[in-house]
Design brief:
It is built from eleven helices and nine strands. It is α/β, with parallel strands linked by helices. A seven-stranded mixed beta sheet has the order 1-9-8-2-5-3-4, sandwiched between helices. Helix 1 packs across helix 4, helix 2 crosses helix 4 and helix 3 packs across helix 4. It is globular.
Length: 310
Amino acid sequence: MLLWPFALGWVGIIPRLVLTTLFRLLSSIPLAGLQRIGEVLGRLVYAVAPSYRRHLVANLVLAGGEPARALATRVAAESGRGALELAFVWMRPQDEVLARTRATGWDVVEAARREGKGIVFLTPHLGCFEVTAQLYANRPGAGAPLTVLYRPPRKAWLAPLIEGRRARGNLALAPASLAGVRLLSRALKRGEAIGMLPDQVPSRGEGVWAPFFGRPAYTMTLPARLQRTTGAALLLAHGERLPAGEGWVVHFTRVREPLASDPVEAATQINGALEALIRTNLAQYLWGYNRYKTPRNVEGPVEGPVEAAP
């Protein structure tokens, strides 16, 4: 029995070592080749998984992506590219990743910095969202502190790998908890930037039902609350994936419209801004993510069908 705690430790260590080794091996492949492999795997999953295929097509129809089935195969390919390029982003030297990442709209970022009230970055599941935070925090000669809201993985043994590869340089992580929210608030009060995935389904009590591509989606209220209480600038950021392994372009734009004080109205405004952004690059949005699920212990919306969470 004395060996039991050690056995539990190895249960996590062994798969973590295997995954880390696999990621290191994959990262040795040139980015173009790695993304090409991911594209093939993404199309394969789309071909053999009918429920996944139906889910993609249904979501794309909501977004007005016509013809939806033709576009869905591109979405599946981009999702596969995104999954495998993660090995490159996490495992290759940071300066090499940043050398393949450029920015548009950086003047918007600099203007927001000069205001001195902090920045709330909203980064949806569009393109390579992992490089957006790395670029802002660690861009040579222009990097600045950034605290990103982070939901720890359900498998605890994954946390050291994910956290260790994300929290580098000026980039810090804040857990999705009350303590994490306090970290975000303090960062804004110091005039620093924070970031979060605004299209991630929040937990009970942390969201409201608001339309997203015409269907009710449980939407986090935290971005609007933090922005309203601090006066921080509200910016959208997404990392467009370039072809042939060229890297990524991170686009920065500002949400100019003042957010409403009502949580539902503010969430609707944010979702509307996300919709407009996603429509500029439908193929690179993570449509496989179950955006419309109902979190546990949350009542569904008054109108409109919503898929139950597993």
